[in-house]
Amino acid sequence: MAPTIKEVAKIAQVSPSTVSRVISNSPRISPKTKMKVKKIMDDLGYHPNVNARNLAVNSTYSIGVVMPSSTDKALQNPFFPEVLRGIGSVARELDYSLYVSTGGNPEEQFEEVKRMVFGNRVDGVILLYSRVNDAITKFLLEKNFPFVIVGKPLHTFEDITYVDNDNIKASKELTQHLIDLGHKNIGFIGGPAEQMVTADRLKGFELSMKNSKISVPDEYKIQTEFLEYGGRKAVERLISLEDPPTGLVVTDDIVSLGVMNTLNDLGFSVPKDVSIVSFNNVYLAEIATPPLTTVDINIFKLGAKATNSLINKINSKSVEPIIIPHKIKYRNSTKSLSLRRNDN
Amino acid sequence: MAPTIKEVAKIAQVSPSTVSRVISNSPRISPKTKMKVKKIMDDLGYHPNVNARNLAVNSTYSIGVVMPSSTDKALQNPFFPEVLRGIGSVARELDYSLYVSTGGNPEEQFEEVKRMVFGNRVDGVILLYSRVNDAITKFLLEKNFPFVIVGKPLHTFEDITYVDNDNIKASKELTQHLIDLGHKNIGFIGGPAEQMVTADRLKGFELSMKNSKISVPDEYKIQTEFLEYGGRKAVERLISLEDPPTGLVVTDDIVSLGVMNTLNDLGFSVPKDVSIVSFNNVYLAEIATPPLTTVDINIFKLGAKATNSLINKINSKSVEPIIIPHKIKYRNSTKSLSLRRNDN
DNA sequence: TTGAAAGCGCTAACAA
DNA sequence: TTGTTAGCGCTTTCAA
């Protein structure tokens, strides 16, 4: 049996509350007794029982992380280990533990969240997805339970805390890069339209094109299921157009890989025949052939900041949405179409 | 404030212990009162407080998952979301919660595990890595704390429960495939030598070659850091040999992608110039160009079974190591060297 | 089949 | 600065 606060107290010849004060590092205690008690805790190998503590203070020092539906191939996106890493790093630093939910479908996820919340298992929740008409968000909102979204809520007016990039701006810059390179026929391949990421990145794309007075045919804008067939269908459709694009803005590195592969299969070469710019900068973008020009959205920081925000929220500090800065990584998946320059 | 067992009891006009019995579905209770109490719990939206329950029974219905060092790029391997998914699926089914540790370095990880164990946060631990001389394994063993390893412990004689594939056999079959295709110059690219996966897969490779009486020069066997440079260095070294391999056995799909890319860069084509066979069958292997012939190790099941084993162990049932069957997925990353056949 | 009561290990208000 | 004590919400033994 693990030693309890009482045994420590007895041996140290102090009261349990004194020991408790040592644990919580209370200032109302003499350095001398503190030392004494600490030594005995060490000797005994004492560790506080969190269940008891949690029960007493009605809190848990742990946070729940809700992954997207795990039935989805999208979960295999390296994005997730990386946010988790970010979340974990600040959680650890601030002495919080991590609960994860990997619910299969939205109903299962909801069940898990209810378990976490009702069971007093967590003090707050981080949502790693954002869905239209999401029962979980609604539930958390109603319960007034602290949570933050990595990404962007559908309706910001609901005053939900979130941590996101400025995807519109990022997409504008990225598209502009292609335009600067002399491309005019530029297509867009995004994920499901209901996702805010896709919406924002599409908006940035359109804005940029409009700024440069380049019109974009509707067939140039494609939303495809994340990872599905590696965007194969999207590419086939695009490339079989009468006037196929020479440049592609793709909203996810993994999809980009699929796109490149499809292009190769169809006999086109990147960047010779078509230039690709992408988003996320996961490790694979770096080791791809050619290495992808992509927006580094700083996934790690997205997770880290979300955790900070959540913990602030738990401590009922007021919390603003946070925008993580991005940075385009220029690599070799694009080619200049203008005559005097060649970036490849 | 959430309703407690007492309030339910009061309204139902029974004692708290009766309510408790209803919660735990005790047989020593009349169907009538059970119904009555249940209804009131529903009406009140009652949910048991797990901290209180855990404290009372000195257990937690949750399990800890220890990821590999997160400083490592290897964490971006889609392997991890996928095992997590497997673990989560049975955890959910059996009503367990998941705690994850994403410790940066081994020391941090150790701290987190101690927190989990000493703090009574979890009933058992799943290790997603296996290292030589690992402090955590040792600690868990000493404490006699339930844990299982996904992968294989270094010393099986220590009677550690683990869930793994038969990597030797898988590697033998995979290598044999290359041999059947007429390859003789076959190289091996593996991860760090200290990992059992690498060791086993190397062993299988060597066995297979030996069976076919093909000798393998030492320079053909390369261990490289997981994901580092996408195995670039390994490939460059290999390909610059006087008699470079025409076939490659690579122990990880992601590394294979890097290898293929490097080969492309160097002007070699897969499978025309060199055939590649690989391990894991992550989603990316499917959408690669060419799609990889790879061993499907059933990552999901690896996680699921590990969780089952752990929970059995927690309930002090005896537990045997488990071997998950594998299956080679034949795709297009290999080419036949014999004259009468051409599988590409 | 049900209830009373003690206790799980800790915190915190109050008193000293 | 320290100790006493009640109590967090639940389970479980013992008695009825």
Polypeptide structure, described:
The structure is a homodimer. Chain A has helices at about 5-10, 15-25, 30-45, 50-55, 80-95, 105-120, 135-145, 165-180, 195-210, 230-240, 255-265, 285, 300-315, and strands at about 60-65, 95-100, 125, 145-150, 160-165, 185-190, 220-225, 245-250, 275-280, 295, 320-325, 325-330. With about 350 residues, chain A is of the alpha/beta class. The N and C termini of chain A lie far apart (about 65 Å). Chain A has 2 domains: about 60-165 and about 300-325, Rossmann fold, CATH 3.40.50.2300; about 165-295 and about 330-344, Response regulator (Rossmann fold), CATH 3.40.50.2300. Mean pLDDT of chain A is about 90; it is low at about 340-344. In chain A, strands 2-1-3-4-5-11 form a 6-stranded parallel β-sheet, with helices on both faces. The interface between A and B is large, with 64 and 65 residues.
Given the structure, what is the number of helices of chain A? Answer: 13
- Which two chains have the most extensive interface, and how many residues on each? A-B, 64 and 65 residues
Distance between the termini of chain A: 67 Å
What is the domain tally of chain A?
2
Architecture (CATH level 2) name of the largest domain in chain A: 3-Layer(aba) Sandwich
Unreliable sequence segments of chain A: 340-344
**Helix coverage percent of residues of chain A?**
40-55%
Helix/sheet category of chain A: alpha/beta
Shape of chain A: elongated
Question: Any idea of the CATH topology of the largest domain in chain A?
Answer: Rossmann fold
Overall number of strands of chain A: 12
- Average of the residue pLDDT scores of chain A: 90
In what order do the strands lie side by side in the largest sheet of chain A? Answer: 2-1-3-4-5-11
CATH class of the largest domain in chain A: Alpha Beta
CATH superfamily of the largest domain in chain A: Response regulator
Roughly what fraction of the amino acids of chain A lie in strands?
Answer: 5-15%
Radius of gyration of chain A: 25 Å
